[in-house]
Each structure stands twice: as structure tokens, then as C-alpha cells.
Amino acid sequence: MTSKASGGAASGKECNLLQLFVKDASFEAPGVPGILFGHDQPSLEFDVANTYNLCAEAGTKLGEVYTVLVRVTVHARAQTQTLFLIEVQQGGLFEVVGYGADELDFVLRTRAAETLYPYARELVSSLVSRAGFPRLQLKAINFESRYSKAMQEYYDAVQGDVAKA
Hints:
- The chain is α+β, with helices and mostly antiparallel strands and 165 residues long.
- It has helices spanning 56-62, 101-109, 111-130, 143-164; strands spanning 14-28, 43-54, 65-78, 81-97.
- It has a four-stranded antiparallel beta sheet with strand order 1-4-3-2.
- A hairpin with a 2-residue loop joins strand 3 and strand 4 (81-97).
- The longest helix has 22 residues, at 143-164.
- The radius of gyration is 19 Å and the shape is globular.
- The N and C termini lie far apart (49 Å).
């Protein structure tokens, strides 16, 4: 599967998914099966994060390849009782071509994460359904918007620290 970043082949910039993998999947439902038969409307706590690093093992054969992980955690509770707790880490090996060092963080945290997130969503949905709970469809995420917000918060914090000095 190949995922072209904005600009595509015309500009020589590409973000190619070489290999898809599940790094980790954890599912806990301590009250099953009893909890399946009557509980209050659950509240969901949802968290998503992504990381990347240079993959030295793949790099020896393929060039500059990055391992990107998208971690999704979902905790469903009915009052104080845990219905289920899921954590999945969906991973991929990405070849990034034509981007400068200043663009690399952006591409791996946005374009690569956008490629992996649908697979993580499907895995979470499948685990919830297989445990006997109603289907859970996680919302889509705009990784570019999240990245911009995080960078703005970082710059604001740095400027605040400089002003204090």
C-alpha cells in the first residue's frame, strides 16, 4: 500500500507505507459475561497518540525507513465499574522521500498517522464486538489539526519561559 503525501509525485515528495503491523493489542473486560446484561449508559475515555523512530533494521536493506505507531486507548465505564479497557498499537514502516529534515516530523506525525489510524479504529471496533458489546465506531481524527495545535502550545510555552527569564 502506498500513501502519497500532499504534493505527491509531481514534487517528488512521498510517504509510502511499506509494511503494516499490530505492535500490541490489549483487551480487558473484567465483568463479562454478567455486565453484558444490563448496565448504565457507559462513559468513554478516549486517547490517541503517535510516535515514530528511524528503523535501523529495515534501513540496512531499504534506505531511510521509519517505524510509526498509533496508540489508541478506550476505557468504557458504567458509573464506577469498568466495562472494558482497550489499548492497541497499530504500526507501519514508512519510506519518506523528498522531505527536508524540517518537514519530516510533520509528515510522520500527520500523513503516516492518518494512514494507520483507520486500521487501529477497525481493530478496536472488532475487539469490542467480539466481546459481546454493541458496536463501537471511533470518530475520525484530523492529525494535521492536532499537530498544529500541539506546535502552537509548544511555541507559546517556550515564549512564556523566555519572557520569565
